[in-house]
UniProtKB/TrEMBL annotation:
The keyword Membrane applies. It holds the Pfam family MAPEG. It is found in: Membrane. SUPFAM superfamilies: MAPEG domain-like. Signal peptide: none annotated. This is MAPEG family protein. Keywords: Membrane, Transmembrane, Transmembrane helix. The keyword Transmembrane applies. The chain crosses the membrane at residues 6-24, 55-72, 78-96, 108-128.
Length: 130
C-alpha cells in the first residue's frame, strides 16, 4: 500500500497547470471584451467559460477517486495509465470545444476518455471494499 500520494500529486499538479491556463484564457477574454461577469453574450468568452467550467466540474472528483485508489494500494502502472489518460482527455476536450461548440472528435474523445477514467476509478474504489 502506498503511504503517500505522490502520483496523485504529480497528476494533480499537471492538471492544475492546465486549469490555470484555462483560467487565464477566460481572464484575457474578459479583459478583451470588457466583461466583468457572465459572458456578455460573446460566443468566444462563453466557450472559454464552459471549457473552464467543465474542467472544474470533472477533474476534482477524478482526483479524489485517484487519491483513494492510490491510498488503497492501486498499482502505479494503472495510476500512470489513468492519470495520463485524464490529462490527455482534458486537453482534447479543451481543444475540441475551443474549436467549435458543436461536435468534434477532440471534444467527443476527451469526454469519453474522462468518463472512462471516472468509471474505472469508481469501480476500483468500490471493489477495494471487498
Amino acid at each position: 500500500m502506498h503511504s503517500s500520494l505522490l502520483l496523485t500529486g504529480f497528476y494533480g499538479g499537471i492538471l492544475a497547470i492546465l486549469y490555470i491556463a484555462l483560467t487565464f484564457k477566460v481572464i484575457g477574454l474578459r479583459k478583451k471584451h470588457s466583461v466583468g461577469i457572465g459572458d456578455g453574450e460573446n460566443s468566444e468568452l462563453a466557450k472559454a467559460i464552459r471549457i473552464h467550467g467543465n474542467f472544474s466540474e470533472y477533474v476534482p472528483i477524478a482526483l479524489i477517486l485517484f487519491a483513494a485508489f492510490e491510498l488503497n494500494g492501486g498499482s502505479a502502472q494503472m495510476l500512470h495509465l489513468l492519470g495520463g489518460l485524464l490529462v490527455t482527455a482534458r486537453f482534447l476536450h479543451a481543444i475540441g470545444l475551443g474549436k467549435s461548440t458543436g461536435t468534434s472528435w477532440q471534444r467527443f474523445s476527451g469526454t469519453v476518455a474522462t468518463f472512462i477514467v471516472l468509471l474505472i476509478l469508481a469501480v476500483c474504489n468500490i471493489l477495494a471494499m471487498f
